[in-house]
Amino acid sequence: MAAGDTTKTGRVNNDIYDHLGERWYTARDDPIALLRAEARARNPWIAGAIRQAFPSGEVKVLDIGCGGGFLSNYLAEAGFTVIGLDAAAESLMIAQRHDVTGRAFYVMGDAYRLPYASEAFQAACATDFLEHVDEPGRVVAEAARILQPGGLFFFATFNRNFISWLFGIKGVEWFVKNTPPRLHELSHFIKPVELRAMCEDTTWKVNRILSA
What is the total count of domains within the chain? Predict the structure, then answer.
């Protein structure tokens, strides 16, 4: 078990991502609509940070757990070379369908065993993903392996506390229609100190972790 991984109870319902289809882009009264809105707000910041770090030349980005391609397709439009990796074939198909550039490349794969050489990418992303796996430290370690020295790793996940349980789990169940059971499990949320330990175990320097 990688540093920072904790014992998980329950099982996150990741099977839903095999059956979302066009709801990735059309759902309104659905938690996927919240995810889409969150991505719209966050994507410009990620693209800007990558461009600031690498102002010239080709920049290769790996989007781990890319889902329907909200981030991957945005980064492709921004001019980056992007690979979106996910375990759900249908999500990858939808992501490819919504790539208006025709430049994003989508691959089915395992985040614990990324099918890429060491130091192959300048940036890697795992947004809204680490809370969906049992061993997030393994994902972080693999991201560190495929990043070149000075590369960037972007992540967004839930802090394991009462506020996240209330708003991220129960609030969505109570107030958002079409929320499936076990969309999230509190035991899979990650405290900032744990995530920092996962990163530092790879010898990364952690720039900033924001938490609620």
Answer: 1
Closest Cα partner for 20 from 84, 109, 89? 89
Cα separation, 126 vs 111, whole angstroms:
10
Report d(CA 52, CA 55) in Å as an integer.
6
How does pLDDT run across 23-58, given as a tens digit for each residue?
Answer: 999 999 899 999 999 999 999 999 999 999 999 889
CA distances to 4, 22, 72 from 156, rounded to whole Å, are 16, 24, 15
Query: Taken in order 186, 5, 45, 162, is the CA torsion positive or negative?
Result: positive
> Is the four-CA dihedral 175, 67, 9, 6 of positive or negative sign?
negative
Neighbours of 159 (CB within 10 A): 20
Residue 110: which CATH number?
A: 3.40.50.150
Q: Distance (Å, rounded) from C-alpha 159 to C-alpha 123?
A: 23
Sign for the pseudo-dihedral over CA of 114, 118, 121, 122 = positive
